[in-house]
Amino acid sequence: MAQIVRTEDEGDPRLDDFRDLSTADRRPDRPGGRGLVIAEGTVVVRRLLASAYPPRALLGVERRIDELAPDLADVPVPAYVTSAEVMAEVVGFHLNRGVLAVADRAPQPDADEILARSRVVAVLEGVGDHENIGALFRNAAALGVDGVLLGAGCADPLYRRSVRVSMGNVLRVPFAALTPWPSGLERVRAAGFRVAALTPRADARTLREVAADGGRTALLLGSEGPGLTAEALDSADVAVRIPMSEGVDSLNVATAAAVAFYELAAAVN
């Protein structure tokens, strides 16, 4: 079980995994950094503890650590208990959720492994906003998407903000890089998927029409604002749109993805 360790020393070196999370060049989850995964709040920490990501330690106020006691029964890591004030000094900001956990990264499947066991996948291009990435993963987990493939220009799904916004679902939905880009889409097609590019173009087929065709589908989604590049659109098998009311031509990428995930997953279930 977890070892409960009480400390009121903000300089305690055992807390270094949690230190200065608001300082960009020192963050342990930043690209090129130590590669740690950080979970915030009891719900997300529980999902991390139940995932394949090996936990290293927890840090929290006593009430939150007590709430997690059943989840920590078989987890042999230190759980550091301190005050909210000391925790804020260590982390660099006041954490309303009252508990953090850090873990090492787990081995990820490659794109071909994900495709082999999937019916609906999301393929992202240029989705560089961590909150959008997190929301996409949360929607994917909720609406029956089997995996996510990351093309060029995508943010790291395991960045702290992405993990938080996803409510820990980036730890449950398998993902992999799809390279090279966009010619890697040929791997998706060779695995038996139809590549459907989501776009507001008026000449695109409607989402419901494409979903009704059935079959394995890879939904291609572009960045907020510019959307998919011309090269990615040209590499798709079909352009698909969500019909909208007059005067509205687009949705936030995570919202649009949720609508499309629902329609596509329902068609194969």
From TrEMBL:
Entry's Gene Ontology molecular function annotations: RNA binding; RNA methyltransferase activity
Biased composition range(s): Basic and acidic residues: 1-32
Region (Disordered): 1-33
Domain of life: Bacteria
Keyword Flavoprotein: no
Signal peptide residue numbers: none
Keywords: Methyltransferase, Transferase
Pfam families: SpoU_methylase
Keyword S-adenosyl-L-methionine attached: no
GO biological process, one term: RNA processing
Domain tRNA/rRNA methyltransferase SpoU type: 120-262
Protein name: rRNA methylase
UniProt source species: Amycolatopsis methanolica 239
